[in-house]
Amino acid sequence: MSDAVERIRKFVKRWYTRYLLATELYMVEPWERVVIHVLFVLVFTLFWYFNYSIILNGVLQMRDIKRHAELQ
To answer: Which domain holds residue 48?
Structure first.
């Protein structure tokens, strides 16, 4: 392997270890870790969808109302 690939691999491994330590997932069984990761992905996906659909739509409507008020 090239040196750059090896450095990237070490970097990702180090950050994954830090993630496991910060979330204390290093103490659980592998199947429990998978369940927690799935829940994390689900929660972050729901946050993204909420921000994309509700917040973005609200901001676009407020911008349109402001522009409409300026035209009159």
So the answer is: 3-71
